[in-house]
Amino acid sequence: MRAIITLAVASIAITFYSAASQACMGPNSSMWLSPVTSLAAKMPLGKHPLALKVGLGDGSPGFPGQSFGRCTSCGCSSQIGALRGELLKAATKGNSSIVLIGEVHDNELHHRIRAALLGLYPDEDMQPWSALLGPIAFEQIRADQQLALDAFAALPPQTRTTADLTRLLDWDKSPWSKTSNYTPLFDAAVASRLPILAADPPRDAIRAAAKSGPSALPADERTRLGLDTPLSDAQNAASLAELEASHCGAIPKSAHPNMAFAQRYRDAHMADALINAAAKNGSAVLIAGNGHVRADRGVPWYLHQRAPDKKVISVLVIEVEDGKNDPADYVERDETGKPAADYIVFTPRAARDKDPCDELKSKAPKN
Questions:
Q1: Which of 45, 98, 303, 308 has its CA 20 to 30 A from that of 39?
Q2: Cβ-contact 354, 360 below 8 angstroms
């Protein structure tokens, strides 16, 4: 059984072999991690003992029973830097890997960390590292925005900018633009010159699924996406509980089953986008919320059904809690005890002026 292992900065040295050279490429860790560490220091719980630490499953390549934090020939590599090297290696074309990295949507630090993890920051000579990665699919971009992505891809790679991307996507009209500052992540993705893909279904299709459930999709589409295979009773119960918690208990229980199906539809659609991207490029990357990235019932569940030949690596990026210092207390597991991710990155929590549940509850329909 795979277990999440606590990784301390000053713990056992690890031989990185090829992963070490990956982690040492381009800027040194202090350079490319400085936006991460400086922002983390200003956040609530920035001094939490788990902040900016990494936990991993004991079956992950290269790291069974070991830890990050070793000084290598290129300087002292952080835990995030070592994980970055491992993900870069896994995402190299030919390894047939799909890497999924999660987030808490309104935490800007999570967007900066993911840009660093994927090696998307340009090196000292401002050369993108596009040879190391496959296409990047975003939950925040819907399939009905494909024309905007096509227009962006048609622009000269040397001169196109994040402003071009957000203009074509009408990003200022997207609810995501009000959630957090995604600019650092978009900047990095644009600089990489890698293909940027839409992962989420069209908005109208999501709404129809949330209203009508399975009947909103044609039978052949449900079958193709793997939606005809039901979750286990335990998975379904956990999904409904997560749905209720994420909506602060403000949604009528009668709406839960169809909303849970809409969540499944989104997971299956994202998996489909990744399978298509990996078929053309060998590897692919997903940027999405932690609920979609978790391996027990999120996007990876559909990937394992439909593309069992692909290695799937799931990374949760989660916020630490005051007084909760044991990494094992943060690890959710399936009914067999298997962790819901291959890696967990612990971060300080975002500063929030008000409880996000307040607005949800004020707009919720009454039972």
A1: 98
A2: no
How buried is residue 74: exposed, middle or buried, by Cβ count under 10 Å (0-12/13-18/19+)? Answer: middle
Contact 332, 340 (CB under 8 A): yes
Amino acid at 319: E
At 196 the three-state DSSP class reads strand
User: What span, in angstroms and rounded, lies between the C-alpha atoms of 247 and 258?
Assistant: 14
| Beta pairing class for 311-319 and 71-72 | unpaired
Residue 201 structure tokens: 């279904």
- How far is Cα 158 from Cα 346, in angstroms, rounded to an integer? 35
175 and 322 in contact (C-beta within 8 Å)?
no
User: In a 3-state reduction of DSSP, which class is residue 105?
Assistant: coil
| DSSP 8-state class, residue 366 | P
Confidence of residue 121 (pLDDT cuts 50, 70, 90): low
Average pLDDT over residues 280-305: 94
Higher-scoring residue by pLDDT: 300, 128: 300
Beta pairing partners, 136: 196, 285
Bridge partners for 159 per DSSP: none
Closest CA to 122 of 201, 25, 43: 25
Give yes or no for residue 127 having a pLDDT over 60: no
Q: What angle do CA 50, 54, 60 make, to 5 degrees?
A: 150
Contact 342, 56 (CB under 8 A): yes
State which H helix or E strand residue 99 sits in: strand 97-101
41: its two tokens: 């220091």
Say if CB 196 and CB 141 are below 8 A apart: yes
SS3 content of the chain, % helix, strand, coil (to 5): 45, 15, 40
What is the pLDDT at residue 306? Answer: 95
CA 68 – CA 51 distance, rounded (Å): 14
Backbone angles phi, psi at 244, to 5 degrees: -65, -45
